[in-house]
Amino acid sequence: MTTLPPPALRITVTRGARELTVDVAGDLDYDTVDHLVETVSEQLARHPEVRGVRLDFAELSWIDSVGLSALLMIHRRTRAVGGVLYLENRPALLERLLRQTGTLGHLTARPGRDEGATGANVT
Question: Where are the domains of the chain?
Answer without folding.
Answer: 8-106
